[in-house]
Amino acid sequence: MISYEPFWNTLKSKNVTTYALIVKHGISSATIDRIKKGKGISTMKIDDFCRILDCAVEDIILYVPDESLPPLRFGAVFLLRALGSWGSNNGGVPALFI
């Protein structure tokens, strides 16, 4: 999962408030709210924060492994099995690939 703890630490160390981000730099209050709630933000917003705060990406976000989640599996066969059937309405071609 992504943690925004570095963002809050960077704001504090740079003496920048969320109010200043909104009023002076045009960051939306919705973006600040998403960060407060631990929701995702775009890489464009991360870039904006790095530019505004003159910092690196790792000063905004941190990846924290979540051991409670099952490992991800990739590949078409896995996806098709996860979706259920191969599909019969499309000549055997799964809808995922049409």
Keywords, separated by commas or semicolons:
5 helices, two-stranded antiparallel ribbon, elongated, 98 residues, mainly alpha, single chain
User: Overall 3D geometry?
Assistant: elongated
Give me the side-by-side strand order of the main sheet. 1-2
Question: What's the helical proportion of residues?
Answer: 40-55%
Task: Estimate the strand proportion.
Answer: under 5%
Largest sheet: number of strands, sense, barrel closure: 2 strands, antiparallel
* Mean pLDDT, all residues: 85
Could you outline the blueprint of secondary structure elements for this entry?
Layout: E1 2-3, H1 5-14, H2 18-23, H3 29-36, H4 43-53, E2 62-63, H5 76-83
Antiparallel strand pairs: 1-2
Question: Mind explaining what this structure looks like?
Answer:
With 98 residues, this protein is mostly helical. It is 44% helix and 4% strand. It contains five helices and two strands; from the N terminus they run βααααβα. It has a two-stranded antiparallel ribbon with strand order 1-2. The longest helix has 11 residues. The mean pLDDT is 85.
